[in-house]
Each structure stands twice: as C-alpha cells, then as structure tokens.
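Run log, item B.
One chain of 152 residues. Sequence copied directly from the ordering sheet:
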Amino acid sequence: MPVNDNVANVLERETDGTIDNWYSHVEKENDLITVALSREQRCAHLPEMFRDIVTRLRSPLPLGTRALTSDAAHDHGCLRREQRYTAAMMVEESRMLQVSIFQTLQLYVKDETPDELLLDVMAIADEVDSQLAQAMTSYISQANQDFKPIKP
C-alpha cells in the first residue's frame, strides 16, 4: 500500500487548529462541561494522539489492527475516570474529535483522489477508535480498582 503523506502533513501542520475546533465543540456540549476542567486538562491528551495518528498514516497498518499501543491513551482513560467522566462522555469526546479532524481535512486536503482520501479517513477513524478502546480499558480497570474490598 503506498504511503500518501498529504493527509499526515495536513494533520501535523493543523494539529493546534483542529484541537481548537474540537475544544469549541466540547465547550458547547452540556454533558461534557458538567465536569469543570481547564482547557489544558481537557486537551492534554490530544497532541500525543495526533502524533499517533500521523504515525499511523505514515506507516499504514491493515484496518482493525491494534499494533500501536498508546501510553497516552491508557493515561487518558485513567485520568478521565479520576476526573469523573462517564464512559459515554469519553465516547462523545472521541466522536467530536473525529468530526474536527474530518472538518480539517475538508478544508485543507484538495489533491487526493477519493480512493486515497477514503483510505486515510478509514485509517484515522480506526486509530481514534483504537485509542478510545485503549482509554476505555484503562478507565474500566481504574473503575474496578475503586470497588475492590480493602483487606484489613
């Protein structure tokens, strides 16, 4: 499979703008803003996530492959649990991130064929979902720790 660097370059160059777009969506979501967090707290995981997405685009894997493990995704799941996010809130954040990424691509990617763009979009969605699954695994693990009996 040929590596098309155009989408990776756009995401790398437009990371900050895409995060700003995502954050503006999050601020309007009543369920998410019930958890009072600073911008830094809410966005802390995103720069590493974008690096992981760009890496995935530059080193394609078969769709559905979970070969890339992300310490940032693991830490994000634990942190969101500590911050009292619900699982549904984490899924909503992830959904909004995909929308923001696709809006960025719509603005800045002009030279790709539909087939190339579709492959890149599928890889992005697969990576975001993979990282969400990793974050949810650590979130659930953290939740299970909360309910373990304390031994005398």
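Observations after the first pass:
- The chain has a mean pLDDT of 87.
- The longest helix spans residues 114-146.
Flagged for discussion on Thursday.
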